[in-house]
Amino acid sequence: MSSQVMEKTESNVAVEDSLRDLPLSNSYETAMEALSSLITRQKRGTPSSVGGKYGKFDRMQMYLKILNLEEHIPELKIIHVAGTKGKGSTCAFCEAILRECGFRTGLFTSPHLIDVRERFRIDGFDISEDKFLLHFWDCWNQLKEHVSDDLPMPPLFQFLTVLAFKIFVCEKVDVAIIEVGLGGKRDSTNVIKEPVVCGITPLGMDHTEVLGNTLGCIASHKAGIFKDNPESNMPEAFLRGLTTAHLYGRAQVVHDSSSNCHFGSAPADNSSGDLIFYLDGAHSPESMEVCAKWFSSAVQESKQLPNLSSSSHDVESMKEVWGNGYIQSERGNTNESNKISKKILLFNCMEVRDPQILLPQLVSTCASSGTYFSKAIFVPSISTYNKVTSGTSAIPSGISNQDLSWQFSLQRLWEKIIHGIEGDVVLDESSKLDSAETLPPREFLYEDASRCSPADGNLACSSVISSLPLTIKWLRDCVRENPTLRIRVLVTGSLHLVGDVLKLLKR
Known about the structure:
Order of helices and strands: HHHEHEEEHHEEHHHEEHHEHEHHEHEH
Low-confidence stretches: 1-6, 11-16, 261-268, 302-334
Shape: globular
Oligomer: single chain
Largest sheet: 6 strands, mixed
Helix content: 25-40%
Distance between the termini: 37 Å
Number of helices: 16
Structural class: alpha/beta
Strand order of the largest sheet: 4-3-2-5-1-6
């Protein structure tokens, strides 16, 4: 242990010494601007044009050679994971298990929700800002010195992949867990030649515009990472690691800090109502079904927090989990029975997704467990595809003249689902589903859903709000003004939306 402490101390001193030599302009936000310049497309599914005469893997090998990583990557013990759903969670499970077994771990996942440093974890923690800057500018400057018409700077994900290898080699991790970005066979991470383990999580119909429109085509891309197929047991340390693994925005519960409580903990008193966010970035039919089952289970007040084990070590671990806001219980008090509970859906999804599958899946699965939404709110995400931001970047309060046609189409679909309207029936224009409210009136929360009727054009089961920050503020104001109110908000449909909400809740 003393030698490990000494190594970490020496590493921190080296980082500080190296940072002193960097120009003052190399701040974290400057690094974000530099990363943003590598974004080569606006929306997923559109072709990415990278200049030069080399293909992706030839470029990757050249980048690694420039950074003197080519000979060091084979020395890394790497777990490589592909799949349609759950690959990020699987990577998190693997990392937690190995860390519990005493290994120094590196974890590379995507996307990030709040800050790009989330993609690079060392020993279970996001890489520090100082170390990120050290490795980032080292990679950036070396690559910049070698760019040419034939070899341009790598696009964003390729650069981040190279940076991950750089970080894990320099930080001397015992094992690196690498999540595939998209597919497998043609993914930038597939420069790994001798992984210790390859894993494939469940497959589904996603990214069909790139991987093909059959499960067979998709499976062939995922299987492109295979190099070996070992078997393993499940020792006790593995089980402990699985219970403590977490990933932001996946089955995450956050009690809002504005309601007289701390971020990640339950309300301390009854001076205001409760505002509880249930965040899950589900965006496929399979993950939406799992999300709906989780939410339905989580909102049942009689459910008890699952036990990790009977050991005192695990009790302390659970306290830490509570503090981080990943798993939380509904802590009762004498006035619990007086709370008016409202379940709200806060939803957005990318236009390449099919909400006509996602939303019915959510509603039907929740209903099968006796869970029904009082209202639904549709909002645009804050995150954009043309800029990388940090956790401290300014959040716009609203975007003027924003196109909300996608949100209105989601709202119309929701109203059809709630009222059982079949087919392509056009809703009555008098239902006023063509203009976003700045903020709904407080009465919106209390209106009985049974009063919403397509017969009289009163389709008030949902709302489109043009600003996510204003939506969060409105929800907070509602619970502040009503101590008897408990609002449970399921945020789903998009990891971008989940990340935006998390960023707002932490402000």
